[in-house]
Amino acid sequence: QVQLVESGGGLVQAGGSLRLSCAASRRTISNYAMGWFRQAPGKEREFVAAISWSGGTTSYADSVKGRFTISRDNAENTVYLQANSLKPDDTGVYLCAADRSGRLRIGVSTLNHDYGYWGQGTQVTVSS
Q: How is 26-85 classified by DSSP, letter by letter?
């Protein structure tokens, strides 16, 4: 079972940047597509970004495209989310997840239920 721990969240002013990290343990993440999701108070969890197990394919929600970048370092067993030009609407708990299908996944999924391993999340708050 993959254990995931997010870090790097915090309070930032609109227009600022944060770099979120997701460190994995117990298993290597090189066999999994990885995703970032977020959940704001009173709202459903939503897809933010994903990267294939090889790193060759990425996908982004329209709301973050051009501002956020997902990357992975399989040697460090870590996935990153670089979030630039942050807006108050980006506020929420950011969660890292590993796709349950492992290397059977072609490309990436944007769907919650395709991810079987989740971290506890890191809070991102963007002030206006």
A: SS-GGGS-EEEEEE-TTS--EEEEEE-TTS--EEE-TTTTTTEEEEEETTTTEEEEEE-S
Quick check: helix, strand or coil at residue 119?
Answer: coil
81 close to 25: Cβ distance less than 8 angstroms? no
How far is it, in rounded angstroms, from Cα 95 to Cα 48? 10
Identify the residue whose tokens are 């009173």.
42
> CB-hemisphere CA count at 13 Å for 72?
26
Whose tokens are 């600022």? That residue is 16
CA-based nearest residue to 6, from 126, 123, 128 = 123
Structure tokens at 46: 């939503």
Q: What's the pLDDT tens digit per position in 27-56?
A: 889 999 999 999 998 999 999 999 999 999
Round to whole Å and give the CA distance between 28 and 42: 34
Q: Are strands 58-60 and 46-51 parallel, antiparallel or unpaired?
A: antiparallel
